[in-house]
Amino acid sequence: MKLLEERIQRDGTVKEGNILKVDSFLNHQMDVELFDLMGKEFRRLFADAPVNKILTIEASGIGIACVAALSFHVPVVFAKKTQTLNIDGQVFSSKVDSFTHKKTYDIIVSKKFLTPEDHILIIDDFLANGCAVLGLIDLIRAAGATLEGVGIAVEKGFQSGGQRLREMGIRLESLAIAESMDASTGKVTFREQPRQS
Ligand code: 5GP
Questions:
Q1: Whole-prediction pTM value?
Q2: Cα(174)–Cα(155) distance, integer angstroms
Q3: Best label site of 49, 77, 132, 190, fewest CB within 10 Å?
């Protein structure tokens, strides 16, 4: 999505350790008009998928998922990060290694909100090594729900997550795929994606 790529070039900053900072428009201050266009693009890309629920992970996926949900006319469920694992059996849980925080945490979703009838689209802000998305896929599998696909705002194509998911046969649509990022110049290059706007 050209508009997102241009915005990353203009307002994003590249940090040491392969971190792209986009907190002026994506995951701290949020440009909801850009989110609206991103949500419509996800809808266009997954137009043929019978999505009835969007699943994301707190905190930074929630804003994008909620605005996208307006285009899909479906509810959003977000997985909660927790340190106290509920052991009364009322939640699905999985473990996620955090790329940005360098630690492992549990994620949970109440069993009330993921069922075998659900057709799920996962939405998140970033895809790096894929741990967050794989954790969400664990929850979907535990519930017996159907995964329709994964929509990502920014995929870092030089990390392993995208390849892992595509090799698993998962339908993955990323609005911008960063091929390289240079912390000294701040330059980001993007992969060409002919199907996108
Ligand atoms: P993964 O689980 O795919 O390794 O990493 C994805 C998660 O880490 C995302 O939910 C996102 O919050 C965070 N993340 C990974 N890379 C970046 C990055 O370059 N910039 C920012 N802001 N967050 C990132």
A1: 0.96
A2: 6
A3: 49
Chain segment 116-175, per-residue pLDDT in tens:
999 999 999 999 999 999 999 999 999 999 999 999 999 999 999 999 999 999 999 999
60 lines ligand 1 (CB under 6 A): yes
Ligand 1 site, residue 9, Cβ cutoff 6 A: no
User: Are residues 120 and 146 in contact, defined by beta-carbon separation less than 8 angstroms?
Assistant: yes
Both structure tokens of 192: 């060409």
Query: Does residue 25 have its Cβ closer than 6 Å to ligand 1?
Result: no
Question: Whose CA is closest to 121, among 109, 133, 106?
Answer: 133
Q: Please, where are the H alpha helices in 31-89?
A: 32-45, 60-72
CB 20 less than 6 A from any atom of ligand 1: yes
Q: Which atom of ligand 1 is least distant from the CA of 130?
A: 3
